[in-house]
Specification:
It contains 21 helices and ten strands. By secondary structure, it is of the alpha/beta class. The strands form two sheets. A six-stranded mixed β-sheet has the order 2-1-3-7-9-10, sandwiched between helices.
Length: 560
């Protein structure tokens, strides 16, 4: 009898290992601390229909909806997903989001808080990432509670936020009942067209990959024997001792083989087994050889400002992190790897305490060098400014003043030049003939190149000819600069600097004597001029708008 039971176990385990399609179905009704969701458990029960369609179904169908059970089922689904040909995820219950990420809260979740929401929830973004492994055959269905109740704590929003959907993934959203019906009556039914069902429904919407037709179970497919649910007992009726023995044997075999396939096979059969946590950890380590490096970096527990400081320091050293936001994405990882390569260190892309210290020391030295060079260039620029003033503006002629301003719009004598030039305009106006003044005023009202050219053509001896020619040059230069300024302004907006950072920028400009005006966190014309002077002294693009290079250099020194 014992041999017969063991043979049955081995037969069923082999069948499970061959399953090529996976589904994660989580529907939660009863919340301990949050409003209940009508019909959530029915969604979980509807997932059983996928068993006969050849899917291995994970989730809350066995009734367990606390974080430990739901996240365990989610990890088991994740372990099987690389081998799947079709994948379905259905999540129904209470959701929250932070504007960029969304979570389904598990039954034991308290009122969610920004820094702990992930502890008792399933990440919608993680589900989409897993589904992206089977593009064109991957569906995410989100069933939301139709309620005005605000369940989110400070820093979070109730419901599902905007989703960035990976290529090839179809996302369907609607109320809980509509999600249940779509799963039971369409997705799990041979020939069931998801897109057609969404178009007919008043409660469902589809986004992401939305083809003309999407069928997950082909027409004519004969229902198979139900694929057993993901539980610890592989065969109903097998004694607990025998199941435990088999689970232990399977774990030892997985450890002995120590491959991705062996651990995936173990999790496929025992997603909630005694060694499931260790299996998931080892599987992740095998799939990601940098896992130990990630863990070592995580153990440093770097706060967001420390991460931003690393990014600023790398920018100062000439390594583009593609942002200073405290998030180590591909840009920052690439910058770290490049720095490591140039410093005879293993190019892992991850930080250690020693790496951070060396980057900080190098950035401090480089910042000091840049400041010294900037001061030297500033002195040279001021000397050249003085020379040009003595040659042009100091002569007191209108032509000389205009020449000086065209070359030094933010120069140390710019205000004096503009005031003197304004006086000269008034004098010219007073001395000009009445007809000449009247004609000139009409051209100034039009204020375009054609008007000023008309003045030059019709008033060959007019009192305002030099001013007309100067204004034509200004307008032509403005047109040429407009496109550059638009691009620079867009770059500045993308930085999304808060008022505190802007005040730090202005304070640094003021400290350097660059006359930014009031230090109030608002960028005005005085601030633009000061930014241009700062950029010019440091051989940066002197646009007067903030960019990553300017802010990195400025704030690195300010924070230091």
């Amino acid at each position: 009898m014992r041999q017969l039971l063991l043979s049955s176990v081995l037969f069923c385990a082999a069948s499970l290992a061959q399953a090529q399609d996976a589904a994660l179905i989580v529907g939660i009704t009863d919340y301990a601390a949050l409003p209940d969701v009508t019909g959530g458990i029915e969604v979980a029960q509807a997932g059983a229909a996928l068993n006969t369609a050849g899917f291995r179904v994970f989730g809350s169908g066995n009734g367990a909806t606390d974080s430990t059970a739901v996240q365990g089922q989610g990890n088991a689904f994740a372990a099987l997903s690389p081998d799947a040909d079709r994948m379905v995820v259905v999540l129904a219950g209470q959701f929250v989001n932070d504007g960029t990420r969304s979570w389904l809260l598990t039954a034991d979740s308290p009122q969610p808080a920004p820094f702990t929401v992930g502890q008792r929830s399933l990440s919608v973004e993680t589900a989409m990432m897993l589904l992206a492994q089977t593009p064109g055959s991957a569906v995410l269905v989100l069933g939301e509670q139709d309620s005005d109740a605000d369940i989110a704590g400070p820093g979070l929003l109730s419901g599902i936020g905007d989703l960035t959907i990976p290529s090839g993934v179809t996302v369907v959203r609607g109320d809980v009942a509509a999600a249940r019906n779509l799963l039971r009556d369409v997705i799990a039914v041979p020939g069931g067209d998801v897109i057609a069902a969404v178009r007919k429904s008043k409660s469902l919407t589809a986004s992401g990959f939305v083809p003309g037709r999407l069928v997950l179970v082909p027409s004519g497919q004969t229902p198979s024997a139900p694929v057993p649910q993901a539980t610890n007992d592989v065969v109903t009726g097998v004694t607990a001792d025998l199941a435990t023995m088999f689970e232990g044997s399977a774990w030892e075999q997985a450890r002995k083989t120590d491959t991705q396939a062996s651990y995936a096979a173990y999790l496929d059969r025992f997603p909630n087994g005694a060694n499931a946590g260790d299996a998931v950890a080892r599987l992740q380590a095998l799939r990601d050889p940098n896992l130990a490096l990630k863990q070592a970096e995580d153990d440093l527990k770097l706060p967001v400002e420390a991460r931003r400081a690393v990014q600023r320091n790398l920018q100062v050293l000439g390594f583009d992190t593609r942002g200073i936001d405290g998030i180590f994405g591909p840009g920052t990882r690439g910058a770290i790897k490049t720095w490591q390569g140039q410093n005879n260190t293993a190019q892992t892309g991850y930080l250690t305490a020693d790496t951070i210290g060396r980057i900080n020391d190098q950035a401090a030295r480089r910042a000091a060098e840049l400041e010294l060079q900037a001061e030297q260039r500033r002195a040279a620029n001021r000397a050249a400014d003085r020379t040009d003033w003595d040659r042009t503006g100091a002569t007191g002629t209108a032509a000389g003043l205009r020449e000086y301003l065209e070359k030094h719009p933010d120069g140390q004598f710019a205000e004096q030049a503009r005031a003197t030039l304004s006086d000269k305009r008034q004098q010219s106006r007073a001395a000009a003939a009445a007809a000449d003044r009247e004609f000139w005023d009409r051209m100034v009202a039009a204020d375009n190149v054609a008007a000023y050219n008309r003045y030059l053509d019709e008033q060959p001896k007019g009192a305002f000819r030099d001013e007309a020619a100067a204004r034509i040059r200004q307008l032509q230069q403005a047109v040429a600069a407009q496109q550059d300024n638009s691009a620079a302004a867009a770059t500045e907006r993308q930085l999304a600097l808060d008022p505190i950072s802007l005040r730090l920028v202005e304070a640094r400009l003021q400290q350097l004597g660059l006359q930014p005006g009031a230090v109030d966190g608002r960028i005005d014309n005085d601030t633009r001029g000061a930014i241009r002077r700062y950029q010019r002294d440091r051989q940066l693009t002197a646009s007067g708008y903030l960019d990553q290079a300017t802010v990195s250099q400025m704030l690195t020194d300010a924070f230091r």
